[in-house]
Design brief:
The structure holds 3 protein chains of 3 kinds.
Chain A (H helix, E strand, L loop, with lengths): L1 H15 L2 H22 L3 H24 L1 H8 L2 H6 L5 H30 L4 H29 L6 H8 L4 H15 L5 H31 L1
Helix pairs in contact in A: 1-6, 2-3, 2-6, 3-6, 3-7, 3-8, 3-9, 6-7, 6-10, 7-8, 7-9, 7-10, 9-10
Chain B lengths: L1 H21 L2 H33 L13 H28 L2 H33 L7 H22 L6 H30 L14 H33 L4 H9 L1
Chain C lengths: L5 H6 L4 H44 L1
Classes of the chains: A mainly alpha, B mainly alpha, C mainly alpha.
Chain lengths: ~220, ~260, ~60
Amino acid sequence: MKLFIAAVRRDLQAQLRRPAELLNPLIFFIIVISLFPLGIGPSREALSLVAPGLLWVAALLATLMSMDLIFRSDFDDGSLEQMLVSAMPLPVILLAKITAHWLLVGLPLVLVTPLLALLLYVDARGMVAMTLSILLVSPTLSLIGSVGAALTVGLPRGGLLVAILVLPIYVPVLILATAMVATGLAGGDYTGHIYWLMAILFLSLGLAPVASAAGIRISLED
Amino acid sequence: MLLVNSVKQFVTRRLPDALHRLGSPRLFFETSGRWLPWLLALSVGLLLLGAIWALLFAPADYQQGHSVRIMYIHVPAAILAQSGYLMMAVAATVFLVWRIKLADIAMQSAAALGISITFLALVTGAIWGKPTWGTWWVWDARLTSTLVLFFLYIGMIALRAAMAHRAGVGRACAVLALVGLVNLPIIKYSVDWWYTLHQPASFSLSRAPTMPLEMWLPLLVMVLAYYLFFFTAWIMRIRQLILVREKDTDWVRQWLASL
Amino acid sequence: MKFDSLVAFVQMDGQGLYVWAAYGITCLLLAMNLWIPAIRQLRFIRRHKRDAQSAQDRQE
């Protein structure tokens, strides 16, 4: 566990050396959300009606955009190859990487969500549900996305391919999360949704690092 | 203890041995070559029989009228779209665990075949939707999860195309197939749930509450015919890819010379 | 037989267009799945024969 935390810290420091790349997904998220009122019109009813879906799809895309970075620099400077022979099992190393990535990309998304929800006229109840859902699901998004990133890390331009591989797999969490927000907006009880989303989170916590490790091994072999 | 040992021996020795023997491209090519004409005749014959039955003899629906005849080609396509993915995932598992080349070829062929059947399910669903719902597309639970399945197939094919000349292409695709397999039931249930959430108790394609026997039977024939057709087309694709991949081996040269 | 005449069979109470379009596309797509591997295999064999032939010509 100590080793794991040390690995997370190391990854955090390494990623913080390139702050611009980390900010891009966040800026993308904010800009996309501010474009929607321009496209749909400023009407309060229309915007608050589509807000959960908009925020969610934009969050998915922002996470996906950042997924390309998660292993890229380690691949370029050869440190991924060293991880293969390290004493720590590869899935654990990758889990540390994913954790660091979520702390730097996922968490900021969670933090700006209330602000963006405000822009789309979501009321306080909805705002809580919205933020909670993103907090709960963004680790799942990073975990699932890491599998796509691991499979394509050796390819020169993997960015769009990752989206094609991963977006269909995001469907269940998108459905559950938007339903949770809709329930919250209507003033309903969404503990059931939270349990389901947590179940999916634990499932991907168990499976995604292993699948990512397999993907990394395959990508590095060529 | 004895039982455990014999199970262990089966899994670690006997099963891999058998798979490697059966997984020899040459053996597959020669055996399937003998079966293929029969399979082809049987599946095309059964398809024709099912089509004639469905078009001429099956009853019209009291609500939908004659457009219900589309069901006999849409439902088997939707079933095969899912089974095809399952078969592809089985091939992927065999390839990942035992590294049998034939399994990789089978996986690649199943993806190509599966995506076309899934496309067929979507198109026939849309055509059926027009007279039934009045629009070409409805976000019905079955159509939506078939659409997501279509995207999953696209991912498989896109990954293979992007990695075409790399050594790890087969295993990368196999990993993706298994990730998709784990997600498939979750996607299906979440889409079903999403549908009931938004449109409770409306008419859904192919979920007729009581289907009379005279509709069941042709449907059954069609499902059987589609399965047979899938296997036939699958074997044909596998044989063609075996030839390409093994073109420099002696047995392919001999086979070519014997033509 | 559920139809009285050929015209009724083709029209299917005005729904013929949909039914026949669906069956036509199915027929086309299924045939394509047989056609593609068959034609590729034929091409493979033909190419090989040509190569073998030209190798023989060179030898002579």
